[in-house]
Amino acid sequence: MKHPKTIQKGLDYIVAMDATELSPFEIRELLRKTVTKRFDVIDQIMLAARKEGIITDKDGMCHFTYEAHDLDFYKPKIIHSKEINNCRCCGRSMKESHYIELKSGLLGPYGSTCIRKLYLDYLFEEL
């Protein structure tokens, strides 16, 4: 299904998460830190993820059902850049930025501490 760019980034990020289950609040908070601060767009991403079968609700938790969705999985990459920026997650000033490269675009910038809090641990095994 074709989605607006921000919704697609949110779906790509959810697919890339290395988690089996999270609370709806945790997913919404991660989307707020990565994709958009607009709660109405976060609601649209969550709705699209349920419609696509990426997540299912059970016992108050969101369970990730990656095998059920038909989105093409593009393994994201972490891009490191030496530039002065503010972390999208915590707002701190930094000299080295990290970005998440998804099929639908870049997310970031993030500091080295915050990038490791985004449920993408498997990407750091290669570094």
Could you describe the 3D structure shown?
This protein is of the alpha+beta class and 127 residues long. The model has no long low-confidence stretch (mean pLDDT 88). It contains 4 helices and 6 strands. It folds into 2 domains: 5-68, Winged helix-like DNA-binding domain superfamily/Winged helix DNA-binding domain (Arc Repressor Mutant, subunit A), CATH 1.10.10.10; 77-125, no CATH class. Strands 1-3-2 form a 3-stranded antiparallel sheet. It has a 3-stranded antiparallel sheet with strand order 4-5-6. The chain has helices at residues 5-16, 24-34, 39-52, 112-115, and strands spanning 21-22, 55-58, 61-64, 77-86, 93-102, 105-110. Pfam families: DUF5830.
